[in-house]
Amino acid sequence: MVAAALLASGCSPSIAPGEVETTNPSGNVEVSLPDTGYVGTLLDDVPRPAMTLRTTTGRRFDLQGRPASEATVLFFGYTHCPDVCPTTMADLGVAYRQLPGAARRDVTVVFVTEDPRRDTPGVLRRWLEGFDPRFVGLIGGGERTRTILHQLYVPASRINPDPLPAVEHPPGHQHDAKVGPPRGKDDHGRRGELGGGDGLGDDYGVDHSGVVYVFGPDDQTLLYTGGETPSDYAADLTRLVG
After folding, report:
1. pLDDT tens per residue, range 58-107
2. Structural domains in the chain plus CATH codes
3. Which residues contact 97 (CB under 8 A, 6 or more apart)?
């Protein structure tokens, strides 16, 4: 599958349908994707996953129940993230405001927190307001999103007790060094699945995927793995819903 090949790490993926394998003058093998006209990678094997989570206002958000004309931008992270989350959301915020009015009405940007212990609805809402007040915040993490991440070919998020760089506490966060993430064990058999009190304190990080998915009309799915500009996102989204 294309998504599995793009997101695999530490191995050499097989050539997916439509990819072209060539050898450059240095003798190195290069794999290129067909030109679809999109900056993002157009996937033909990753439909919208079944995902129903609560928003910061307590409403149910059903990813598969969105309007047929909508492009849903999906990113998983946490508000204490010091790098990829704020930069990605800032880029998406700029891109969203670059969209023509008609296109913007058919685009919904969704951020799913993988840290429900610290990212209360209020904290998450205030953090998203800094990027765009129209962005949707969902409470995920642990078993709420494990299956979804697996369907999207990305690893499950897990706690990092000693993150580098250090986490950044967002506005509205109440620091409490006596309380840690919730009880439970992650895929590696250690305590760390976000839930309650294992003594890690409040400065832990969350290792998570940095990819952006866009689920558009006509079952079109785009994948972004990094390096895109706001204009790249805006161009793809405008074409996707146009």
Report:
1. 999 999 999 999 999 999 999 999 989 999 999 999 999 999 999 999 99
2. 1-35 (no CATH), 41-241 (3.40.30.10)
3. 132
